[in-house]
Amino acid sequence: MSDLEAPLRPKRKKIWVDYFVNFRWIIVIFVVLPISFTLYFLTYLGDVRSEWKSFEKRQKEHDENVKKVVKRLKQRNPSKDGLVCTARKPYIAVGMRNVDYKRARHFEVDLSAFRNILEIDQERMIAKCEPLVNMGQITRVTVPMNLALAVVAELDDLTVGGLINGYGIEGSSHKYGLFADTVVAYEIVLADGRVVRATKDNEYSDLFYAIPWSQGTLGLLVSAEIKLIPIKEYMKLTYTPVKGNLKELAQGYIDSFAPRDGDQDNDEKVPDFVETMIYNPREAVCMTGRYASKEEAKKKGNKINEVGWWFKPWFYQHAETALTKGEFVEYIPTREYYHRHTRCLYWEGKLILPFGDQWWFRYSLGWLMPPKVSLLKATQGEAIRNYYHEMHVIQDMLVPLYKVGDALEFVDREMELYPLWLCPHKLYKLPCKTMIYPEPGFELHQRQGDTSYAQMYTDVGVYYAPGPVLRGEEFDGAEAVRRLESWLIENHGFQPQYAVSELNEKSFWKMFDAGLYEQCRRKYGAVGTFMSVYYKCKKGRKTEKEVQEAEQAHLETAYAEVDMPVD
C-alpha cells in the first residue's frame, strides 16, 4: 500500500448514528422529498396568488402588517417577557447551525405574512421586497422582464431577509459586491415601535451600514429596496479546465476575471459571472459567463443547454467534464443558470442521496429534487445534528483574493475536502467601519482584482464530508472549525454566521468590528430588546439566565475589545 493510500489517522469506531446516516436516504425518498415537493408547489401557488394582486393592494397589506408588528412590539413587557425573536420555527432557517437561542424564553413577533414583492420600479431600477421573498420567487417575476437583482443567490429558498441580515453572494459579486451591497434602502421596525427608512445618506445612515451581518439584532426588517440590472435571455458560459498545484489553480481562477493590468472596471475585460470549482488538489474548472440575447444563442452551431430540467446531469458534474474534453462554450437560459446549484444543493445532494446523480434516478424521481433544507433539519434529532457538526463541514471562508492559494492549501491540509467552490466579491471601502471591512491600506498595494474603492475578496465554499471521515478515520470537526476560524482572523478573513461557529466572544470581535454595531445597538434601543449578534450565533443551548446576564453586560459596558478606527 502506498503512502497516499495508507490511512493518515486512526480508524474511528462506528456507532449507531453512522448506520442511520448511511441509510438516511430511505427517509429522504419516502418522507422528505414528497413533502418538499408538496411544500414547493403550495409556495408556488401562494406566489402566483400574490402576483395576481396589484402592487397597490400588496403595499396596503404590507402597511397593515407593519402596524400589527408595531402593536405586538408595544405589547411586550421588558420586565416580564423575554427578548424579541421572530416566530419562525428554528428548523426553517436555511443555515446549518442550530438555532439554539430560541430555546430560551423569548417574545415572538410573527413576520410570516411578509413574503410579497411590493414593487418593480423600472425607472429607478429598484425591486421593493418583503424579507421572506426568496430568490426563486423574485427571478420568476423579473427575468421575463429582462431584469434581475444585481446579486441573485443560487439556491431558490434563500430569502431577502436572510441574505441582508446574514450573508449572500453570487457569481456577479465581483462586480456588485455582496447581496447587502445592492440594497438602497431598508424599512426597519425599531425596538420602540418606530418604523424608519434607512438609506446611506439620510438621518439613519448609521443604521443603514450596520444592518448587514447583524442577524436581525438591531430591529425587524420589513422591506428592502434592492438594485435591479438589465439582463438578456441567455448566459454564454465558458468552461475552462485548469491543472497544476493549488497555488497554480488559484492563479488560474484569479486570471479568469481579474485583468493583470488592473483594469477591473472594464466590462470588455471582466465577465458578468464568475465561479470556479476545485475538484481535487490538481484540477479545477473556471467558469465565466456573459449575458447573451436569444438571437445569439440560437445561431447555427451554438449549443443551448437547459440545465434546469430534472433529468439533466447535476451542474457540478457537468462542469467537471471540461477536465476530460477541454474548454467548451454553451448557452444556458438565464434563470436556469441563476439556480444551477439548487437541484443538487451544490454537491451536498451526493451525501443526502448517494445515487441521486445516477441517470435512472434523475429520469424517474429527479423531478422531486431538491429536498428542502428545513425538512432535512426537522427530521434529524440532537444526535444526528451533533454528528453532522463533527463529521461534516458547511463553511464559507471570505478571504482577500491574493490569499486564495493559502486558503486552498489550508483546507487541503486540515480537511482534505473536495470539491471546493470559489466565488469572488468586492469588499467596499465605506464611509464608516462596518462589521466586515477591507484590509487597511489595501489600495496602496494595487493587487490584482483590487480597485481604489474596493478590495477583491473570495468566498471559498467548503461543503462536504472531509477526507478522513470518508476514509472512516477519526476527525475532530469542532477543532477543525476552530483552526479555520483562527486562520481567518490571522488573515483578515470572515466567516458567515449561518454556519456552525466555535468562536468565543473575544475571538468573534477580533474577526468582526463591533464599533458601529454597538453604537447602533445603544442608539436605537436594541440592547435589552434584541439579542446581541454574537449571542444569537453562539453554539449551544442558551438558558434564560444566560440571556439575561449577557444583555445586562451590554447595558453596563461594551462586551468586547474594539480596535480603534483606522484613518
Automatic annotation (TrEMBL):
Q: Where are the transmembrane segments?
A: 21-45
Superkingdom of origin: Eukaryota
Specify the FAD-binding PCMH-type domain's residue ranges.
Answer: 45-231
- UniProt EC number: 1.3.1.72
The keyword Iron belongs to this UniProt entry's keyword annotation: no
Q: What is this protein called?
A: Delta(24)-sterol reductase
Taxonomic placement: Eukaryota, Viridiplantae, Streptophyta, Embryophyta, Tracheophyta
Q: How does it sit in the membrane?
A: Single-pass membrane protein
In terms of PROSITE patterns, this protein maps to: FAD_PCMH (PS51387)
Q: Which UniProt keywords apply?
A: Membrane, Oxidoreductase, Transmembrane, Transmembrane helix
**UniProt-recorded Gene Ontology molecular function terms:** Delta24-sterol reductase activity; FAD binding
Native organism is Daucus carota subsp. sativus (Carrot)
Gene Ontology biological-process entries: steroid metabolic process
Q: Name one Pfam family in it.
A: FAD_binding_4
What is any one of the record's Gene Ontology cellular component terms?
Answer: cytoplasm
- Read off the SUPFAM superfamilies from this record: FAD-binding/transporter-associated domain-like (SSF56176)
Q: Where in the cell is it found?
A: Membrane
PANTHER family tied to this protein:
24-DEHYDROCHOLESTEROL REDUCTASE (PTHR10801), DELTA(24)-STEROL REDUCTASE (PTHR10801:SF0)
